[in-house]
């Protein structure tokens, strides 16, 4: 069998540590060097639609993106939105009530709407992406490993792109190409 591992680096480091597979010790060691940034999503529900086209980029704000996010329970007439912030270290450190206060202030400042949030859910993905520092470059892995049928893919691998969705797609493609090549 051919394996393309797509787990995040912190999870892969843990699996490799527990596996005892010595051929992958260097990868396991390298992966422990990464630090991470969170992505925060505030799913909010309003009685009225926001006056904006989607997706909406928000400049000079702790909110970076607004996407439509309907609640599909069919019980209420609401307008749902996902407000997303990458590298949200400062915002993610706050409690949910403080985050919603920031969201309300930003909606008022940026879109001129206020006091209309009727429900919300805050999601903090604490290790959403690697911290893209010069030091992190040394820990990004190629798709090949010391085990001939085990390959790596993910935005954190060495693609010459930042750790983005584009990098993740490219890494998956490279890993698949190696599998196909090795299948002969």
Set out the fold topology.
Blueprint: E1 3-5, H1 9-19, H2 25-31, E2 36-46, E3 56-57, E4 65-68, E5 79-85, H3 89-92, H4 96-111, E6 117-130, E7 150-152, H5 165-183
Parallel strand pairs: 1-7
Antiparallel strand pairs: 2-5, 2-6, 3-4, 4-5
Plain-language structure description:
It is a single chain. The relative contact order is 0.21. This protein has helices at residues 9-19, 25-31, 89-92, 96-111, 165-183, and strands at residues 3-5, 36-46, 56-57, 65-68, 79-85, 117-130, 150-152. Helix 1 packs antiparallel against helix 2. The chain is of the alpha+beta class and 184 residues long. It is 31% helix and 24% strand. A 5-stranded antiparallel β-sheet has the order 3-4-5-2-6. A two-stranded parallel ribbon has the order 1-7. The mean pLDDT is 94. It has 5 helices and 7 strands; from the N terminus they run E-H-H-E-E-E-E-H-H-E-E-H. The protein folds into 2 domains: 3-35 and 131-183, no CATH class; 36-129, Protoporphyrinogen oxidase, mitochondrial, domain 2 (Polyamine Oxidase, Chain A, domain 2, Alpha-Beta Complex). A hairpin with a 7-residue loop joins strand 3 and strand 4.
